[in-house]
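ok trying again, last paste got cut off:
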Amino acid sequence: MNRPPRIDAHQHFWRLADRQGQWPPAQLHAIYRDFLPADLAPLRGAAGVDGTVLVQSLPSEDDTRWMLSLADQQAFILGVVGWVDMKAADAPARITALASHPRLKGLRPMLQDLAEDEWIADPAVDEAARAMVQHGLVFDALVLPRHLPALHSFALRHPGLRIVIDHGAKPPIASGEIEPWRSQMARLAALPHVACKLSGLLTEAGPRRSADALRPYVQALWELFGPGRLLWGSDWPVLRLAGDYDTWLAMGHTLLDAMDPPPTDADRADLFGGNAMRLYGLDVASPSTNPTTNSPC
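nice, full thing came through this time. structure:
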């Protein structure tokens, strides 16, 4: 490859038949249908994205195995972030079984959907977290600002576990507030094993979907995490609720251009690919088990 790899560190696929009673509701017309590899292919190709990290959107091991089956057939899916009940008595064994697939790169409990904000601070998750460390898996944190204190407690207990905060912890961009989100993110950013995704921010902006509105939040993340611990992701197809793939990618570059201090070429390559490669242990040149250009479904 003659240029740095370009990686979308956060995207989803789903089938509505698997999501009975689950989000999204039918009134969200832009995303209420199946989304499969063939749907992403033209967008990814136009954007010059070499590979993606496919992230779970159901609290289901069956869904995780389905995503891994897609990775077996689609060379561009470089890694999968799946799901396990981290408080199950046999969670370590379940993690070991899933981690036998080389494309499993991480796990994500859907913390934002749980009734208990302190769920991840419970020591009952510690055995699962230790199993993740043993297998070199990344912990994706799907959180809202109210979950950040509990996430900090969890991160302090597991300094050997690589953690990445999805969607910048969904800051309140729509209202223009920045505190206490920024201060809570600063505590997490002080821990060297915690990284953050620049994904999902356009969806959180509500009617304020402009680079100007997002800039203070991206600047805060730039200052706190630095260019070595930020990863660009599309959050497609959820992104369709607020914009399209090429618009968000272009806005990412516009926002990066406005950062203080300004990015170097190396910083840009890291944010749009290199950091994801290192964090998740991806190999963009590695072929899939049975590559094909078509969806298996």
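cool. Strands lie at 7-11, 51-55, 77-82, 104-107, 138-141, 163-165, 194-198, 230-232. The chain has ten helices and eight strands.
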